[in-house]
């Protein structure tokens, strides 16, 4: 007498309502909070924590440790220390500082030419900074572009072979790395392809 799929019934013979799965709101809250934390952590440059902690002057700590019976007078050398600190580390607008951090991060894991790094920072596929901001950021860094060209040349040779002239062409091409002709010649000259 089975007429179809079996359904659950209550003791009084009525069909039972299927149990609703209760989504636990706290699980969704925890997942949402973790997502926000990860997103926030990824958007903050790591160097800003170091800069913030190292830029704190040491004099407030020493003043707090001074006995209360003596009048609190700032040491005479404090203005000189502050002046020396500010002259050593030039301040940049926030967007340029962010672009500088991104540029340093890029340079830490692969070789770039000046033009290639500016292109990466200002590209919508890259960081999306305005070109003038990317240029200011790259120009504010102390980068040995010849060394970068040598690293790029070694990178190319690690996965394919080039003639000396082909390697120079690849390094200096605007479609390639974008090094100057002199930088490309230096970089290629450091490899076995040109020796």
UniProtKB/TrEMBL annotation:
Pfam families, per the entry: Lipoprotein_Ltp (PF07553)
Annotated Putative host cell surface-exposed lipoprotein Ltp-like HTH region domain residues: 97-141, 144-186
Compositional bias of kind Polar residues: 1-12
Record's compositionally biased regions (Low complexity): 56-71
Region of interest (Disordered), ranges: 1-23, 56-93
Protein name as it appears in the record: Putative host cell surface-exposed lipoprotein Ltp-like HTH region domain-containing protein
Organism this protein belongs to: Amycolatopsis vancoresmycina DSM 44592
């Amino acid at each position: 007498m089975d007429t179809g799929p079996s359904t659950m019934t209550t003791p009084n013979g009525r069909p039972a309502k299927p149990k609703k799965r209760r989504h636990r709101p706290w699980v969704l809250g925890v997942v949402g909070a973790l997502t926000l934390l990860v997103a926030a952590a990824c958007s903050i440059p790591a160097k800003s924590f170091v800069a913030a902690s190292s830029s704190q002057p040491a004099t407030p700590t020493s003043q707090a440790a001074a006995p209360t019976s003596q009048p609190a007078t700032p040491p005479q050398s404090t203005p000189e220390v502050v002046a020396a600190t500010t002259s050593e580390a030039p301040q940049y607008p926030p967007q340029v500082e962010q672009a500088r951090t991104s540029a340093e991060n890029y340079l830490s894991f692969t070789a770039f030419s000046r033009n290639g790094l500016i292109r990466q920072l200002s590209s919508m596929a890259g960081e999306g900074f305005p070109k003038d901001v990317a240029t200011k950021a790259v120009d504010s860094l102390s980068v040995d572009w010849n060394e970068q060209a040598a690293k790029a040349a070694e990178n190319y040779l690690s996965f394919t072979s080039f003639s000396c002239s082909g390697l120079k062409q690849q390094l200096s091409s605007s479609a390639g790395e974008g090094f100057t002709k002199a930088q490309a010649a230096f970089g290629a000259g450091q490899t076995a392809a040109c020796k």
